TrEMBL record, chain A:
Gene Ontology terms for molecular function: ATP binding; phosphorelay sensor kinase activity
Subcellular location: Membrane
Transmembrane segments: 16-36, 42-58, 65-82, 94-113
SMART domains cross-referenced by the UniProt entry: HATPase_c, HisKA
Protein name listed in UniProt: histidine kinase
Top-level class of the enzyme under EC nomenclature: transferase
UniProt-listed CDD domains: HATPase, HisKA
Keywords noted in UniProt: ATP-binding, Kinase, Membrane, Nucleotide-binding, Phosphoprotein, Transferase, Transmembrane, Transmembrane helix, Two-component regulatory system
Species for this entry: Thauera aminoaromatica S2
Positions of region (Disordered): 367-387
EC number: 2.7.13.3
Xref: Gene3D superfamilies: 1.10.287.130, Backbone structure of the membrane domain of e. Coli histidine kinase receptor kdpd, Histidine kinase-like ATPase, C-terminal domain
From TrEMBL, chain B:
An annotated GO BP: regulation of DNA-templated transcription
Entry protein name: Winged helix family two component transcriptional regulator
Boundaries of every OmpR/PhoB-type domain copy: 133-232
DNA-binding positions: 133-232
UniProt xrefs under Gene3D superfamilies: 3.40.50.2300, 6.10.250.690, Winged helix-like DNA-binding domain superfamily/Winged helix DNA-binding domain (1.10.10.10)
UniProtKB keywords: DNA-binding, Phosphoprotein
Entry-linked InterPro entries: CheY-like_superfamily, OmpR/PhoB-type_DNA-bd, Sig_transdc_resp-reg_receiver, WalR-like, WH-like_DNA-bd_sf
Taxonomic placement: Bacteria, Pseudomonadati, Pseudomonadota, Betaproteobacteria, Rhodocyclales
GO cellular component: cytosol; protein-DNA complex
4-aspartylphosphate sites (modified residues): 59
Domain named Response regulatory: residues: 10-123
Annotated Pfam families: Response_reg, Trans_reg_C
Record GO terms (molecular function): phosphorelay response regulator activity; transcription cis-regulatory region binding
Source organism of the structure: Thauera aminoaromatica S2
Length: 387, 248
């Protein structure tokens, strides 16, 4: 899976041109050697040919180098070994010279080709490492930017919401119209705060592998704390909790899972008129748990049951977003279901939505159940205190 | 009991954001507190040493360092109540601050009502003699820590020794959060801090015995990712966006 490098890399099969160049190199050595014939020992002239092979091995590839090795032997025999201009050999000792020449040339070719391969793969590895480093740097920069942007946005919004709320504390009680305006400022500041938080969270969740603080969670405890957080907003609805007697433990991130349930509750509350029914239920199977939240509100736009899990996709509110905001403090950013989807996916689960036959919508979470941990050891009723 | 306690409690607020300092000051003053402010750790250290406040409200992310460092120093010489303000959504920071000795935390953005409920609970505990915590009542449950007796609607409730230890830890901190690590260490010992699932099983047991509806608890509350909180009177007021209650 090496990345293409800017450098020309030789393909596994060298092109014809390289064989030609290898032949030229061997020929050039023969040319250089020719004037030396008679002045130098033949054995010394033979030593020139591996130079051509070495050149071919380094610059042209293994195939041309092997070709140059055989050609070198042939040229040496043809031009330098008596009788000249034939491939015949008068003295059998030259066969040994050929063999040594060929062995040296082939070994050179092999070694040089191996060095080249190693160099190429080292370069590719360095390239890959550089790419990975660049990706990590970009990711880190993006997260730092997002985190500081989000912090810089959220801090003044926290102050703004608090200042609006403390307006009546600074003097005599506000007249109703002004108190209402102060409350509207506070609600808007909180809503913008929630939007900044949701954007940051979503970008963290969608940036590859989000960090999960995994812990053992009791399902009824998880649902209970989410319901406690939304108790105020749920007052206007008829709520039912349908849980089996025995519930297993989940291995999940407690904060994120509470967020999932709260976001689904916010969604159901926003889309169900006052007095409507909301039912939170759980079902346990072999290796999975299914948590469903159903309402008898306005239902989902037909054909958009999956699209609602994308960012900023919202169904029209029967009661208006502002209502939902005051009720829950932070609903209606249009990111709630996208966050649900991202968190559930990070836990290896799935979430889907469908319309009920009798009207209203159902959201179903399915999460994997790991093998359950050991029960706590039975207690000694005498109860020796610890430590 | 200290009789030289000044009539209005002194609160030191260490927070770098001027806007947040301003509304926290307004809220605390409406409650009858005297507020001292510090915008950085260094100033906070000086104020702590010279003023000896009754309560410290401490932001974790300060320009010259982490508030947890100041908390650790403070715990070396004082047990004064500390309320941590945390802008970070990362629960690990809150837990670290609580395990380092903070008494409670508030996640930003927080409302005035929430802030005042926490401050009142912390001041009440600080200004009250310790033996007053031996008897605690919530809902129809009465708990006598000294006599090791629990009754519900007047009838005795049988708790196992570990259940009683857990309830005792929550009750002595009534109104404040107790981290999972503190509960596991207190009930099973320091070698069991990883056994979160023990806690799940025992909390379910406690709720079955003490909550009106164990599935929708109103007294023994879960703080996801942090720990548990025993709320003597249901805190629904703190969760609603109500205007601040009158001073006093």
């Amino acid at each position: 899976m090496a990345l293409p490098t800017p450098r020309d890399r030789l393909p596994d099969r060298a092109p014809l041109r390289n064989y030609l160049l290898a032949a030229l190199a061997a020929g050039a050595v023969a040319l250089v050697g020719a004037p030396l014939l008679g002045q130098f020992d033949l054995a010394n002239i033979a030593m020139l040919f591996p130079l051509a092979v070495l050149f071919a091995a380094i610059r042209l590839g293994r195939g041309p180098a092997v070709f140059a090795a055989f050609l070198a032997v042939a040229l040496f025999d043809f031009f330098f070994v008596h009788p000249h201009f034939t491939l015949a050999v008068s003295d059998l000792q030259y066969l040994l010279t050929f063999a040594v020449l060929l062995a040296v040339a082939l070994t050179t070719a092999e070694l040089a080709a191996r060095l080249r391969r190693e160099r190429d793969s080292a370069e590719a590895r360095a390239e890959e490492a550089a790419q990975a480093r660049l990706a990590a740097d970009t990711e880190r920069l993006r997260n730092t930017l997002l985190a500081s942007l989000s912090h810089d946005l959220r801090t003044p919004l926290t102050a703004l919401a608090g200042l609006a709320e403390s307006l009546p504390l600074a003097g005599p009680p506000l007249p109703p119209a002004q108190a209402e305006l102060a409350e509207a400022i506070r609600a808007e500041a909180l809503r913008t705060h929630a939007l900044a938080r949701d954007l940051l969270d979503l970008s963290r969740l969608q940036s590859g592998a989000p960090r999960l603080a995994l812990d053992w969670l009791a399902v009824d405890e998880l649902l209970g704390s989410a319901l406690q957080a939304r108790a105020h907003a749920l007052r206007a609805h008829v709520f039912a909790l349908e849980l089996p007697e025995e519930l297993p433990l989940l291995h999940a991130d407690a904060v994120l899972m509470e967020r999932v349930v709260c976001n689904l509750l916010d969604n159901a509350i926003a889309h169900t008129p006052e007095g409507g029914h909301i039912v939170l239920a759980a079902q346990v199977g072999a290796g999975w748990i299914r948590i469903s939240l159903c309402d008898d509100g306005c239902g989902l736009p037909p054909g958009r049951e999956q699209a609602i899990f994308e960012r900023f996709v919202r169904a029209p509110h029967p009661r208006g977003a502002a209502d939902a905001t005051t009720a829950t403090g932070d609903a209606g950013t249009g990111l709630g279901l996208a966050i649900v989807h991202a968190i559930v996916a990070a836990h290896g689960g799935s979430v889907s939505a469908h319309n009920r036959a009798g009207g209203g919508a159902c959201f179903v979470l399915q999460l994997p159940l790991p093998p359950q941990p050991d029960r706590p050891p039975p207690e000694d009723e005498a109860g020796a205190p610890p430590q | 009991m200290k009789s030289a306690q000044p009539p209005s409690p002194v609160v030191l607020l260490v927070e770098d954001e001027a806007g947040i300092r301003r509304f926290v000051r307004a809220a605390l003053e409406s409650e009858g507190c005297t507020v001292r402010e510090a915008a950085a750790l260094e100033r906070g250290r000086i104020e702590l040493a010279s003023r000896r406040p009754d309560l410290l409200v401490l932001d974790l992310g300060l320009p010259d360092g982490d508030g947890t460092a100041l908390l650790a120093e403070l715990r070396g010489w004082s047990g004064m109540p500390v309320l941590v303000l945390s802008a970070r959504s990362d629960e690990a920071d809150k837990v670290a601050a609580l395990d380092a000795g903070a008494d409670d935390y508030l996640a930003k953005p927080f409302g005035v009502a929430e802030l005042l409920a926490r401050v009142r609970a912390l001041l009440r505990r600080a200004l009250r003699p310790p033996q007053a915590t031996a008897c605690i009542a919530f809902g129809d449950v009465e708990l006598d820590l000294e006599q090791r007796r629990v009754t519900r609607g007047g009838a005795p409730v049988h708790l196992t020794p570990i259940e009683f230890r857990l309830l005792g830890l929550l009750a002595t901190a009534a109104g404040r959060v107790v981290t999972q690590r503190q509960l596991l260490t207190g009930a099973w010992g320091p070698n069991h801090v990883e056994h979160a699932h023990y806690l799940r099983v025992y909390m379910a047991g406690l709720r079955r015995k003490l909550e009106p509806d164990p599935r929708l608890p109103v007294h023994i509350l879960t703080e996801p990712g942090v720990g548990y909180r025993l709320v003597p009177e249901p805190l629904s007021a703190a969760r609603t966006p109500a205007s601040a209650p009158p001073a006093g």
